[in-house]
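Q: Here's a chain of 209 amino acids. Please give me its 3D structure as tokens.
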Amino acid sequence: MVVVRKTSVHVPLTQDVGRLLFEASRRAEAMGLIEPDASGAVGLADLGTVRALATHVRQAGIASATAAALNNVEPPTAEELASLLRTIVAALEASPVPKFEWAGLGRVLDAEQLASLLAVSLSSLNRYQSGERETPDAIAARLHFLALVIGDLAGSYNDIGIRRWFGRKRSALDGRAPAQLLTGEWDPDDPGPARVRKLARELVTMSAT
């Protein structure tokens, strides 16, 4: 995989497009679709950057029509580009891809923490990660949820901070840690996990202002 840079010496994007590109890139990184950008820089980018991101996302079977639209001869306007990036963000949100996400989450969480958050044994985790065993839909949904949460947190925390975030008690969770609401056979749509995601999303909102 190729790193999708968030900087360029070319065209400065509008604030809205830059924010959406940042969000889409963070999600794609956490989902294992692109390699992390070691520079961590955000600000300037060109259409080629957005096209490269869309190409990698399309290779996972996500937002193929959007990638095609970005590669039209006529470059999109800033408004059109923002709309296309919103489509990519929404498509990433709705598309579990365990084939890639096992590797993406493995870059941040160690095996024991990941197994605990997913409510699976270490032996099952190893089988899923290696591809020896197909990931069940319920586990794939949890895996994708964690990838989205990590994508949200990545704008504010480094990998160590993300790992610690799951274990720290939060007043917004009634004094409980996020990990305490992600136990047993939890579903991403359950009230507890929904509160965890909301808490992580609030960090994105604060970093965008």
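Q: Can you summarize the key feature?
A: Confidence is low (pLDDT under 50) at residues 5-11, 38-43.
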